[in-house]
Predict the structure.
Amino acid sequence: MGKDRRLATRVVRAARSLPAGEGVPVTPPLVQSVAFDYRSAARQDAVFGGEATGYVYGRYGTPTTAALEEALAELEGAGSAVCFTSGMAAIAAYVDACALAGGGRVVAQEDVYGGTRSLFERWARERRAAITFVDATDHAAVERALRDAPTALLYIEAIANPLLRVADVAELASLAHAHGAKLGIDATFATPVLLRPLALGADVVIHSLTKYLNGHGDAMGGAVVGGAEVARTMRDRTISDGAHLPPHEAWLVIRGLRTLDLRVRRQCGSALLVARHLETHAKVARVHYPGLASHPQHELATRQLGGLFGGIVTFDLADATKAAAFRFLDALELAASATTLGDLYTEVLYPAISSHRRVEAPERRRMGIGEGTLRISVGIEDPEDILTDLDAALEGV
Ligand code: PLP
């Protein structure tokens, strides 16, 4: 920059790029820039026109988020991934763009995350969107729903929130495809450590990056992972609807992703201990955990999830009342009573007042989510300390 410029100009223009020098950083650079300078109008035109690779504007994609997208595509064995500001933004973009916007019908698992369920219900109410809910573990019911009317998308959670029902991805993929529908799998609870849905026939994988993939409770994000056509449609949505994941969040998720395998394996091991322990506890009526022989899809989980069963354990208190659940939550000392999952820290959630608050109580109960249902996201602390904390809290119930 010209030294003859005045101070007010020099401070504004200072340090716009990094000085050259040997040494590649061992962590990827956080490129916290909304816009890019091409130093040539012709080059800018080529980038904006898609004839040259490059970056246009924050909403269109940035280098740090692109690095995360490449990593996610590679981990899922997919052609591409597009990142969104949250898991819900990813779900909304995919289900709307790839099914509902074209007048297509969606068959969705009934016991999905409460936020997803209430989004679908709102769309059905406000837009008359054709969305039918089914029990995804009842394949005859899924097939009946698919046969009822032409369907664009079968929408499933690999391990459902919060009851941890396990979906048979290969079987559901062939059912969906036989009826001309795509299969979209929300694999947030499974992560690529337990499951690669595309290898089993799914068309698209969705993740809330907020959960295990980041794992540190300090960033939100979502991703749609799939083929080139889905990526084009999703990219168009981030550009026009404006929910593209900003670079700082992407940088945090990349940081978290590095320890995904270590964290998830430890959490799965501890979760199995917690599930076995709670199963014998007098104050517990029922434990939902795919690693227990009592789980209805235990055999499927054993076959499909690579010998791991996830880091979440859900259980029903014997005293299935809100008062008992509150006493339990208030007595926890190590675990946080918090509405998230997949973090380093143990977190307990009460679906009736949080994740599934907006699902009508009778429907919630019909699905099996009662007043005494609690969900534990097991952290990486010493498992003995987690068990001690849970026991002490159950003592006072
Ligand atoms: N999918 C599942 C299975 C979830 O549990 C959640 C949130 O809990 C979401 C999607 C939504 O993710 P986000 O909170 O990042 O929007």
In short: The chain has a mean pLDDT of 96. The pocket of pyridoxal-5'-phosphate is lined by residues 86-88, 113, 115, 157, 161, 186, 188-189, 208, 210, 220, 222, 355 (CB under 6 Å). The longest strand covers residues 312-317.
